[in-house]
Write a structure and sequence with these properties.
Distance between the termini: 54 Å
Largest sheet: 22 strands, antiparallel, barrel
Shape: globular
Radius of gyration: 25 Å
Mean pLDDT: 87
Number of helices: 7
Oligomer: single chain
Helix content: under 10%
Amino acid sequence: MTHPLHHDPVRLGPRTVSASSARRSRVRQVVLAGFALALALANLPAPLAGQEPDSSAVIPLDEIEVTVLRTPILLGEVPFAVSVLGTSALTRGKAGLSIEEALQGLPGVQVQNRYNSAVGERISIRGFGARSQFGVRGVTVLVDGIPATLPDGQSTLDHLDLGTLGRVEALRGPGSSAYGNGAGGVLRFETRRAADQPFRQDFSTIFGSNGMSRLQATANGASGDREYLLSASRFNYDGFRINPIANDGSLYGGARRLHLNGQLRSPAAEGELVVTANLANLDGENPGSLNDSLMAIGDRRSHTGSIFQQTNKKVTQGQLGFAWTGPAAAGEADISAWGLFRNLDNPIPSAVIDLKRTAAGARGALRGEAGESGQFTWNLGGELALQRDDRQNHGNARGERSDLRLDQLENVRTLAFFGQGDLRLGERARLVGGVRYDRLNFSVDDSFLSNGDDSGDRLMDAISPSVGLHVAAGSSVGLFATVGTSFESPTTTELANDPSGRGGFNPELNPQRSLSLEAGARGVSGNRFAYEFSVFTTSISDALVPIEVPDIDRTFYANAGSASHQGFEAAFTLAAGGGASLRATYSYTDAVFDDYVARGNDYGGNQIPGLAPHRAEAIASLDQPGWFAELRLTRVSAIPVNDVNTAETDPYQLLDVRFELDPVPVGALDVAPVAGVTNIFDTLYTASVVVNAFGRRYNEPGPGRSFYVGLRAGLP
């Protein structure tokens, strides 16, 4: 039998079979592979207990509660594909340097780490978000219950404090009935809880290759029912991309980042009030992407045009959020409000973007029970959010602003109403369903009138239902199936980037919509082995796709006619005893254009670029008295990089190792050394791709072999 990591490479050049034949072949592969794995899972010994995928410790699934569905449900009863990572998986032996590091070991979640703070990491779930050129698209992100996804559907994670993360929940598949715009998947990040003592001071210092350093100080504690956490961190990175213009071995692509983060939990009005505040300041250089010929010879230089035009990003962002949960007349109320500002100075090769953004929102929901013994629970509520972008685009004269080319005020107003029901069908089945209505109003006030007045507005709305069924097939085996819809509007930036060069919003760019179906199983066996398996298919209409216009080094967006994603995901955890454990995930995503004709070319039947069809991770851990070690192997298949499918990246595999010693007393401190090596075999690989890049500049390379060492210290 062929190993799932060994697969035929994607052919370059014209296809030799018809699109319909290739499509039928892919469908058969998915169905047969899913059927074979389902048979294997069905023949496991009768399970006795569960295991949290976060840890090598055996923990019953009925003790793990997830909240990513907006309603607390035990993981073993969730009728959706959901994964959880806890504090140990997020922090132990890790440096806390990137979101990629925090999301390792999640099936169906792909992170392309650009090692470029000016554009951020690309996160995709089941193919949604894989073609984003900046920020996070197609995936809804929440941090401590406060949306990191703005009203127009774009998420920026510059404010996420990786050093204080305590938990991540990932919903793979449509979450629009709970979250609305862009919810092809959901990531929920939570700050770790404060220490159970009046005061504790923690420090961490990490130093590594390429001029990397990360310093963090955290004060936290609890007194009675009140908790607090205050954290400050500073990150510095010189980068690894050579500056070919200077010709002196200097680098381009460095970053400097400062984070301030605080959280307070306190009783209020017979409930709990959580206040979260953060401030982030980032200054990052953009070394650009490389063409195939430079990647082929292992030249990790920066792009000369990016250096000449001094491409970079300077951003300051602050956010404040309040969330209160407590009793109400008919059950329990959940009320939250948030606000943020973001100031951006962003020279790109063709322009200097000056963006001043403010946004705010509020959400209210009421939960209750009905029926005998709370057989039916319900959740009803609404949301309102506002976004205001003051955007100016100037010409780029070697990093300095020249002539004004765009000056407009963009506003987004969203209003949503939602309802969710959770019905227990006897003792073995659970039905969870929801529906949501979203109404988005985009408006633009054009102040650059020399080329005409392009003021106007766009109205987009959608009704998004979903329903999922979970059936307990045994004492610790669950089967689930889900059907749901999602929609994704263009962001204000995508609407403002019109290939015609006019101002206002692109009147031809529409939201994409999708319908998804999934089925799966999760369970445990013999108190040692836990698994989750799911198959899915998604049909997309008006798919949002990036294009690049010749001689304009800038990304624009258009709608494809239709597309489809299908595949399967598997996750396994084995607690082997003696402190040894193994976590493994495998994701297969077959994403194709069904109907897409653009610029005189028919791309129907082609692979959607920017997404690795095959991705696998294996993480082996050994937890011994006094120390911890982890070995991680990642395998990524070739990634198609353009719509015509004439080019692709090379497949690659990476091996990383991490160590951490248990804290030992050193004077008044408890000190734990940390060390790690990434890309042990110094593999040359494309860490991220630029889809449809002009001049075949598809490749953003990853660094070679890198090291880090550090200390975590605490005042007990």
